[in-house]
Amino acid sequence: MTPDEFRTHGKAIVDWIADYWEGIEDHPVLSRVDPGWVRSQLPEHPPEEGEPFDRLLGDVDRVVMPGITHWQHPGFHAYFNTGGSGPSVLGDLLASGLGVQGMSWATSPAATEVETLVLDWLAELLDLPTGFRSDGPGGGVIQDSASSATLVALLAARERTTGGASNRNGVRQGTAPMAVYASEHAHSSVEKAVRIAGFGSAFLRTIPSDDDHRMRPDLLAARIDGDIANGLRAVAVVATVGTTSSTAIDPVARIGQVCADRGVWLHVDGALAGTAALVPEMRWLLDGLEFADSFVVNPHKWMLTTFDCSAFWVRDRADLLRALSILPEYLRTEAGQSGAVIDYRDWQVPLGRRFRALKLWFVIRWFGAEGLRAMVRHHLELTERFDAWVVEHPSYERAAPTTVNLVCFRHVDGDDASRRVMDGINAGGEAYLTHTVLDGTFTLRVAIGGERTTDRHIDRLCSLLDELA
Fold it and tell me: Mean pLDDT score of the chain, rounded to an integer?
């Protein structure tokens, strides 16, 4: 493709995306195709000769679009939203055009230094403890997801606990078995990280929660002390600021004190709800973060940034580097050897890395701090509006406290009625809900975090729910 051809077809793609955003409400939120339909519409074998670009774009309309669930739709209230703002998409396009592989400072200094800066900016916007800034022993890095952030946090915690012995001898060879602790409502990625890091699922301790689905620090302390008495080593605790099921906020300060008293690494997962700390009145969510050794928040969830972009900070990067740094001769550079630069390949599991910081840099500069705060406040107001409607409706009841931008509720007639309501909403095409199970009960979730979601869409959702009640 020549530069002139790229200009022509690139403009066509930008126009297509702009038209898609303008008409997104014309699409049913949830894809309606049957399993295998998309593949059945495409040739079984690759083309021998190249095809014109118009034909490619035509197949996007004909085949791809029917198989898309529209995460940018204002009626998308399932899971948690993903960001897709204009500046973020353009930043992603620019990163793809540059084609940077930013594994080290030397491979593109701008990729490293913009990332370091933008993570410091974000730490300032969220009012994180100063220890997470890059001008001290800590610092931030962009991971692909909170799942990867949890994994590298556990690897760093293991490194600190064993003094590097786990890298030489394996997790349980020559050292006592090690355990990781998390709430029963922690994200499933915690167990996956425990498996990948070699602890084994048997050494993940799930701590019961209170009536509001928050980890109980007293039971955490008792479980850690019991394990230590039985010869185990307590490696890390994962506290959650905004659980996936109900956005419950674990009492981080009390959990942090338990960890500090026992020398246990504390990782705080604020993947969704951490974004709320952009507004000063919500910074109570991060009370106790001064105890944390690591913290993660996902701009690709509630900060208008396209997937993937997960901001991860550590208070002391030394443990992380000892766990993940391997330096073959072909990666040695004068700058890296000097110690004057950051080589982000040593802060993650893969070697290679995209220039993800560009899109976050674009978002922060385009919207500004006030624009991002206005977005958060708008979604919190919409959530409060919907929450009040649920509380007042005779057929529905709230199933968990509403803390940020998720409302959990159920039909008063029980699980079958709640499931019928969810299926009815999703079949209609105007909105998309998902469910969880809280206290053994089928529970509906309405997440409100889409850039295009307005009062009108929440009012329409209320009308649909009323019709199905």
Answer: 93
